[in-house]
């Protein structure tokens, strides 16, 4: 494994909780702190989006506890999850709360951390690579590029409302940054694209939909805002959506595609 002493990694104290980001899928994107915590945790409370291979890195004898929320299926409520983390820590366990991507990017890590803070439980937050950065990187799409954009907006295309998230000012979002990265957008993508066009974004603006990013099942669909607003596409989830000129860079930077073609022995 890793040399925690050499790296100066901290003790994982009994009775504490570490909120750790597992990254978007590829186990190679785990941080040294995440590996260190997996090797020491007594309980690993993990989300639905955490790759099963990552769970196999847990210390033998550790309890694996599925605490994730899954759309449409009965799952523990957020207060239940936080209460469970507190109980496990109070019982003297080293509790690893393992979340997909980064715990605090659309991951409710802040809510869990607040519950721990209010309960007086020592905790640590270990950032992970968020899907909105890792996904585009594995699709050959830099989220910023000097010639294209000096700002990028990360947003969620879904909230507890059934409709396109009402709390967002789509006109301001359309004007705000040349590149938009959308989480949880698959269900409302047609409506969101329409709103962005109404707000002045160009119909020929490229859009990439990156499904199951950084996993062996990764697939990327490239289209335009106009096309997506016109016709519903059948998407694999989870998917991250990138809108903006940076998507054009994929034509030259699709390194995953290059590797896959090499593996198949096909000429490039
Ligand atoms: N905390 C997570 C995000 C949780 S919200 C993070 O930082 O990445 C869940 C959304 O993340 C999904 O609806 C999808 O938009 C995105 N997502 C997570 N993993 C993904 C993956 N492997 N490929 C594509 N999108 C992913």
Structure explained in plain terms:
The model has no long low-confidence stretch (mean pLDDT 93). This protein is globular. It is built from eleven helices and ten strands. It has helices at residues 4-7, 32-38, 52-55, 78-90, 109-119, 131-138, 170-176, 189-198, 225-230, 250-253, 255-263; strands at 17-21, 43-46, 63-66, 95-99, 123-126, 152-156, 179-183, 206-211, 219-224, 239-243. Helix 7 (170-176) links the parallel strand 6 (152-156) and strand 7 (179-183). The chain has 268 residues and is α/β, with parallel strands linked by helices. The chain is 31% helix and 18% strand. The strands form two sheets. Strands 3-2-4-1-5 form a five-stranded parallel β-sheet, sandwiched between helices. S-adenosyl-L-homocysteine is lined by residues 24-25, 49, 99-102, 105-107, 130-131, 135, 183-184, 210, 212-215, 238-240.
Secondary-structure map:
Elements: H1 4-7, E1 17-21, H2 32-38, E2 43-46, H3 52-55, E3 63-66, H4 78-90, E4 95-99, H5 109-119, E5 123-126, H6 131-138, E6 152-156, H7 170-176, E7 179-183, H8 189-198, E8 206-211, E9 219-224, H9 225-230, E10 239-243, H10 250-253, H11 255-263
Parallel strand pairs: 1-4, 1-5, 2-3, 2-4, 6-7
Antiparallel strand pairs: 7-10, 8-9, 8-10
The structure holds S-adenosyl-L-homocysteine.
S-adenosyl-L-homocysteine binds at residues 24-25, 49, 99-102, 105-107, 130-131, 135, 183-184, 210, 212-215, 238-240.
How widely separated are the two ends?
Answer: 36 Å
* Biggest sheet record: 5 strands, parallel
Tell me the β content: 15-25%
**Which range best describes the helical content: under 10%, 10-25%, 25-40%, 40-55%, 55-70% or over 70%?**
25-40%
Q: Please give the number of β-strands.
A: 10
Provide the low-confidence segments as ranges: none
Task: Assign the structural class, choosing from mainly alpha, mainly beta, alpha/beta, alpha+beta, or little secondary structure.
Answer: alpha/beta
- Output mean pLDDT: 93
Task: Say which molecules are bound, naming each kind only once.
Answer: S-adenosyl-L-homocysteine
Identify the overall geometry.
globular
Spatial order of the strands forming the largest sheet: 3-2-4-1-5
Oligomer: single chain
Count the helices. How many?
A: 11
SSE order in H/E notation?
HEHEHEHEHEHEHEHEEHEHH
Radius of gyration: 20 Å
């Amino acid at each position: 494994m890793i040399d925690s002493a050499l790296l100066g990694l901290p003790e994982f104290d009994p009775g504490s909780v570490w909120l750790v980001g597992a990254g978007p899928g590829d186990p190679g994107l785990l941080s040294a702190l995440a590996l260190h915590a997996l090797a020491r945790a007594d309980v690993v409370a993990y989300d639905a989006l955490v790759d099963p291979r990552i769970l196999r890195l847990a210390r033998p004898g550790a309890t694996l506890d599925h605490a994730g929320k899954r759309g449409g299926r009965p799952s523990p409520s957020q207060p239940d999850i936080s209460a469970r983390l507190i109980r496990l820590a109070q019982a003297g366990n080293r509790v690893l709360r393992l979340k997909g991507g980064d715990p605090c990017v659309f991951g409710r890590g802040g809510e869990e951390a607040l519950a721990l803070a209010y309960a007086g439980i020592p905790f640590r937050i270990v950032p992970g690579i968020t899907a909105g950065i890792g996904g585009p990187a594995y699709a050959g799409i830099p989220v910023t590029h000097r010639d294209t954009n000096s700002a990028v907006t990360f947003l969620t295309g879904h909230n507890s409302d059934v409709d396109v998230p009402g709390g967002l000012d789509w006109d301001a979002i359309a004007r705000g940054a040349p590149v938009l990265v959308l989480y949880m957008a698959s269900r409302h993508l047609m409506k969101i694209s329409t709103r962005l066009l109404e707000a002045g974004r160009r119909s020929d603006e490229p859009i990439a939909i990156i499904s199951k990013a950084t996993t062996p099942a990764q697939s990327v669909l490239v289209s335009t805002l106009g096309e997506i607003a016109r016709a519903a596409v059948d998407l694999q989830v989870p998917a991250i959506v990138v809108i903006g000129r940076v998507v054009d860079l994929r034509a030259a930077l699709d390194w995953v595609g290059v590797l896959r073609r090499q593996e198949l022995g096909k000429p490039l």
